[in-house]
Design a protein that fits this description.
With about 240 residues, the protein is α/β, with parallel strands linked by helices. The chain has one domain (about 10-180, about 210-230): Rossmann fold (3-Layer(aba) Sandwich). About 45% of the residues lie in helices and about 15% in strands. The chain contains eight helices and seven strands. It is globular, with a radius of gyration of 17 Å. It binds nicotinamide-adenine-dinucleotide (NAD). Nicotinamide-adenine-dinucleotide binds near residues 18, 40, 91, 130 and 177. Nicotinamide-adenine-dinucleotide binds near residues 14, 89, 90 and 132.
Length: about 240
């Protein structure tokens, strides 16, 4: 069977763990070369090493524009191109306003700005932004996170519109409750874990690989007429 990202070069931010690691893993399995980028350099090295010769590690704090620009350049330097960018790095809902906006919103903006420019120059590419169901609705006490993830939807539409003439597609994914290091602190409290299961029509938490499957579609040529769209991967949570 043809690999769905055969010959593509990809940059995935926040790829050392959780959803980002699942995306990088799936991309490599589908024939891509992947720059596994993360603020945690040692963890990025471990993840890249586990993926073999098609993966390289990179240290990048996405809240630092120069770091993001350098990560895009490092992808081109390592693989000769950047065809796919996943703006995945993010921090949880318990951080303060400035930090949350810096990582979850400005970080995505820097990726779109520099990754989009590099792709436009080469004549095309695909960018996937990881938002959240909290980019579509709110829950109590998550103001900065909710604002940042709603902002990602706006950036997705704006850059999709601006980059369409250059052949660059930009889409967003809204994961629901997914078991990762980010959600471990709440998933380990039985009452919260089961409440979330009850609020999710499919009756369970999602796995990082289930998000990666949708990101793969949007990153691949199968999504050739899909841009400025948002895909919900939440077991029905937002319909509840
Ligand atoms: N887990 C969920 O339920 C869930 C739901 C909706 C959206 N999301 C989003 O999915 C994305 C991935 O989250 P996850 O659950 O895999 O979390 P995670 O904590 O397992 O992984 C996040 C990764 O991002 C890295 N990171 C943090 N700050 C960074 C920065 N400034 N620059 C670069 N890397 C940085 C971390 O080191 C880590 O490796 C985030 O954007 C998160 O908001 C997660």
């Amino acid at each position: 069977m043809t690999q769905r990202l055969q010959g593509k070069a990809a940059l995935v931010t926040g790829a050392a763990s959780g959803i980002g690691r699942a995306i990088a893993t799936r991309f490599v399995a589908e024939g891509a070369r992947v720059l596994v980028s993360d603020i945690d350099a040692a963890a990025a090295e471990r993840t890249a090493a586990s993926l073999g010769a098609a993966a390289r590690a990179n240290r990048c704090d996405t809240s630092d524009e120069a770091d993001v620009e350098a990560a895009v350049a490092a992808t081109v330097e390592a693989f000769g191109a950047i065809d796919v960018l996943v703006n995945n790095a993010g921090i949880a809902a318990n951080a303060d306003w400035a930090k949350t906006i810096a990582v979850n919103l400005s970080g995505v903006y820097y990726g779109l700005k520099h990754g989009g420019a590099a792709m436009a120059q080469r004549g095309g590419g695909a960018i996937v932004n990881i938002s959240s169901v909290l980019g579509l609705l709110a829950i109590p006490g998550a103001g900065a996170y909710t604002a940042s993830k709603h902002g990602v939807v706006g950036l997705t539409k704006q850059f999709a519109l601006d980059l369409a003439p250059q052949g660059v597609r930009v889409n967003a994914v809204h994961p629901g409750w997914i078991r990762t290091a980010m959600t471990d602190p709440i998933a380990s409290v039985e009452q919260i874990r089961t409440t979330i299961e009850q609020q999710t029509p499919m009756g369970r938490w999602g796995q990082p690989e289930e998000v990666a499957n949708v990101v793969l579609f949007l990153a691949s040529d199968e999504a050739s007429f899909v841009t400025a769209s948002s895909y919900v991967v939440d077991g029905g949570y937002t319909a509840h």
